[in-house]
Amino acid sequence: MDASAPTPLVRLGRWFGVDDPWQRPRPAVDRSDVLLALALEAFGLVTLELVRSVGALQELTAPLWAQWLAVSSGAVLLLGRRRWPVTVAALAATHLVVVGVTMPVVMGQLTMQVVYFVAIMSGVAWARDRRWMLAAVGVILVVMFSWVALQFAVGNAAQRFLDSAGGDVTERVGLLGPVPAAVLLTLAVNVVYFGGAVVIGQLMWRTARDRALLEDQAGTIRAQAGELRTRAVTEERLRIARELHDVVAHHVSVIGIQAAAARRVMGRDPDAADRALGGIEGSSREAVTSMRGLLGTLRTAPTVDAGPADRTPQPGLGQLPALVAAASTAGRRATYDLVESAPGAAEVVPAPLAHSVYRTVQEALTNVEKHSTATRVSVVVRVRRGPDGHVELEVVDDGRPRPGTSTGGLGQLGIRERAASHSGVVDLGPRATGGYRVRVRYPWTSGADGTRPGTGPGAGPSADRRTATPARAR
Question: How many helices (H) and strands (E) does the chain have?
Fold first, then answer.
């Protein structure tokens, strides 16, 4: 036998919810309690007089007012069956014993039996302290069955049973003799009566507890859903804010630089001025298009049945050469190199990750244009697949901080936020040999084609050196 198995008493306590932290709310006496008590009182008094009319109460010596008081007081007890359940159950048991001793015929009326049954059932169903309820109900049951046993011990119950049956103690007409049969019959009726009240009351308590727990869980789910919606809205606002900052800051910086270059060479180099003005036109058009797409996202109200929004594909690694080329001016040269661990690795980088790399490079180049005197800028993107797969970008320039400008604002914050959204590592700051470096490594633990990291072609420690494919922006 398993020594760790719970004992029958422990199981009984668990079934009655002795250690359950939930407590059933205690309602006030309301209209339903009053109507129930009045209905049982009226029905009890009417049936009592009907029984008297058929001559069944001729041997009752108690005065009429006492009989009516017994019925009315029993019904009135039910007023507090939900407010004070254990107290009402104890008073109902006391009422049963007192009326049963003084007026057994009144106690045996159907109405009184319903009153006692409901009182005990409510005591189990509405009790808040389950230990106190179990102790009180245990005492009630012990008292009830002790009283029944005492009645048979003194012979009163057996004699009444034999008188009503009209039989003889010595005559046996069934499986058992008259006295043992009377004892067992009374015991069975009381077991079903009191046991039914206790079991039904406990089932009602468990049903109320389960319903309350389900309502509490539903409320928690609703609260969590609201938090998730709020978080999603906040994250989307942050994403759009980053996008707007990247788009506006980059293109406005490019427009400003190209405008300054065009102004300087307009009189002596019309072709260079024309190229600068063309760059201004392209940058402004791209900025307007990007901002229009973001504003369209804000204006579109999402619906449950709506499909994905129709928006222009977000830029990725494929647009980096053009981005870096646009950063080259008459006084600054920008280069771009792509290093892949295997041919085509950059093409299978997930779109969200590729977009973050693009925006990070864009922000780094914008900072160079706004805050640096650099004449050379190098952009290197390394794509590696394998167990330690990653996408790393590095933007290095040879300049010094431009007087009158400030760094470390929203641009660097946006870079850190993008890296954090992909569990990336950021390393940015001035170099000891001069210039400034922005390096961000985004982990890439799985291939976009569904293959496991390290299983694709070219994966391995020396893959970068073997298959490096530089691509230089002109």
Answer: 14, 5
